[in-house]
Specification:
With 126 residues, the protein is α+β, with helices and mostly antiparallel strands. It is 37% helix and 18% strand. The chain has a four-stranded mixed sheet with strand order 1-4-2-3, with helices on one face.
């Protein structure tokens, strides 16, 4: 696990070192759910209203440490996919401009501690 955490930190450092990458929003989820709440739909729409031409997004899904690691990995995948689908449906953002990744119950890029980890981060990477 320490090796994975080290690799994850390297990825975050690479993403943010150019100053052009930023975590735009964190979408919270209920325990065991991958459903994006209606209020979050509205926030995602507002977030992308001023999206620059050619912008690309990385959607990173996580899960808490409750339950087993395999189930949490799958849940983080469903959460990331749900948010990525919402983003791709907003005002004509091309589907290939949104990439979903998921890490299960690992520490988030922007977190200093594990809990709560029932979240998806939306990053602008270009």
């Amino acid at each position: 696990m320490k090796e994975e955490e080290s690799e994850l930190k390297k990825v975050y450092e690479a993403l943010t070192k150019d100053g052009k990458t930023s975590a735009l929003h964190k979408v919270p989820f209920e325990v065991g759910s991958s459903e994006v709440k209606e209020a979050e739909d509205k926030k995602l729409n507002e977030l992308l209203q001023d999206s620059p031409e050619g912008a690309r997004y990385l959607v990173v899904g996580y899960a808490s440490t409750d339950g087993d690691a395999k189930s949490n990995y799958e849940l983080s995948s469903k959460r990331a996919s749900s948010v990525a689908t919402k983003l791709a449906s907003i005002k004509g953002i091309p589907e290939d401009a949104v990439q979903a990744v998921y890490f299960g119950q690992t520490q988030r890029f922007s977190a200093t501690e594990m809990a709560p980890n029932r979240i998806v981060e939306v990053w602008r990477v270009k």
